[in-house]
Amino acid sequence: MVLGRTAGPMAGDGCRYASPMTGDREHTAGSLHPPVSWPHIRPGIPALCGLAALAVFLVGIGGPSLWIDEGHTWQYAHEPLGTMLSTVIGSTNAVEAAYYAVLHFWIDVAGDSELALRLPSALAMAIAVWAASKTAGDGAGPSTAAIVGFVLIALPGVTRYAQEARPYAFAVAAVAVSTFMLFRALTRNERRWWVGYASALVVVGYFHLLSLLVVPGQLMAVLLIDRGRLRSFAAAAGAAFMAVLPVAVLGYAQRGQIGWIPLAQLDYLWTQASVLTGSLAVTGGLAVVVVCGRGNRRLMALGLPTALAAPVLLWAFGLFTPLYLARYLLGAAPGVAILMAAALAGVGRGRVLLLGAILLALVWPQQVAVRGPAAHNQDYRAAAALVATDCTARIAYDGMSKDAMLYYLQGQTCAPSETAAGGHLWVVQAEGSHLTESGYTLVGTTTFGQAIVTYWTK
After folding, report:
1. Residue 185's pLDDT is what?
2. Residue 343 and residue 216: Cα distance in Å, rounded?
């Protein structure tokens, strides 16, 4: 029985029958069994920015040689997990233990090629681009999200550390996610965002303790955007602090590891930002855009303090204690990009494209340079190729160069030994005064970025 229609094929029963010889039946929209429809997934601007970032970060990722610290990463990651954790937590660098543990398990699966060692950093930095872009999109729409993605991808310092086997990209990603979670918590009355914010801060602390200097900036953002959420912010930040406290205590006990860092100087406030922006011209240009912009005030209230907190506080502390390294400013990158996008919100598309073209022209030389063989300070790849030309010689290292050299010497047909008794000697060291060897005469010196290889004979 059919309600509301006359039975029969001529009455529009929703079915059309083919030849009775075949028994085929074609279903239309009125059929009891409609055709399967697959969901149409359309990635948003933030996701596209993250994918574009990953593609850019992978370009030339194997170009730079591993440098001193990346050599240490490789060495630690290869050690048995218990031995490595005992060493770094007990005596050397507890603040990076989480990163070394991640790399330990990663290389078991992916291997230890330059690409494999650096790929986790590229993925982490792509997540940072996505999170910062998502934050801006929540605040001012898709075009602002696209600006954030473009700025972060364009900044040479972001690319530089997306292509390095060190924990900085992980910290930047966690800072960006924490900022996103904070903005959601301030604009949506849902407890889960505060839980996410606290969790992201814990990740920041375990991958780079000093990147937590962004928290005072986030506090300022809460006061500017919605001070009524101050109690929730304090609870989330306090819980994260308690979780990170063991790392902070161990890091303080091992502060002698960074005792070589010189005290900060006044000009560091503007000159050292070039590690992130690529040049003083880009730093100045970004500042001019922010000062002249009349964009989204709520995003400005989020971007400005999170962009300035780490650089200013690190500089202030660095005036009195060895603490200030320019690469420690990377946690400011998401805030810088959000601030730029906020300043440009509402600006005409033509002007935004013009400013984007100018930024691209300014950073292009640095984007090329950060992919060079010695872009990570030392070119130990080339140094290993040189010393392999005389494997009968003895080889000696300074206290920093050995791990990176061993990484590349394993790929040579032969390698000099530290215990060889021949009359020839290779000395490999990082930048600094030349090491000398009693009883030997210097024959020649070759530099590979900041790596120095000298050849000696008796």
Report:
1. 95
2. 22
> 3-41: per-residue pLDDT in tens?
444 344 434 444 444 444 444 444 444 445 555 555 555
**Model confidence at 77: pLDDT above 70:** yes
* Residue 91's pLDDT band (cuts 50, 70, 90): confident
What kind and span of H or E run contains 395? strand 394-397
Q: Rounded to 5 degrees, what are φ and ψ at 425? A: -145, 130
Alpha helix positions (H), 35-113: 45-58, 68-78, 81-90, 97-110
Q: Based on C-alpha coordinates, what's the Rg of the chain?
A: 28
CA 347, CA 293: separation in Å to the nearest integer?
A: 9
For residues 165 and 121, give the distance between their C-alpha atoms in angstroms, rounded to a whole number. 6
Amino acid letter, residue 405: M
| Average pLDDT over every residue of 93-107 | 94
Kindly list the domain boundaries of the chain, sorted by start residue. Answer: 45-369, 380-457
- Sort 132 into a burial class: Cβ within 10 Å, 0-12 / 13-18 / 19+: buried
pLDDT value of residue 438: 78
- Angstrom CA distances, 429 to 381, 410, 422, 440, stand at 14, 18, 20, 17
Structure tokens, 135: 């934050």
Nearest to 340 by CA among 279, 272, 292: 292
Residue 12 neighbours by CB under 8 Å, 6+ apart: 5
Q: Count of CB atoms within 10 A of residue 422's CB?
A: 14
Mean pLDDT of 161-187: 97
What residues contact residue 322 under an 8 Å CB cut-off, 6+ apart? Answer: 255, 258, 259, 260, 261, 262, 263
Asked whether the predicted pLDDT for residue 325 surpasses 50, the reply is yes
The pair of structure tokens assigned to 79 is: 């050690």
Cα 242 from Cα 428, distance rounded (Å): 43
Kindly write down the DSSP assignment for every residue of 141-185, as one continuous string.
-HHHHHHHHHHHHH-HHHHHHHTSSSTHHHHHHHHHHHHHHHHHH
In this prediction, residue 287 has a pLDDT band, given cuts at 50, 70 and 90, of: very high
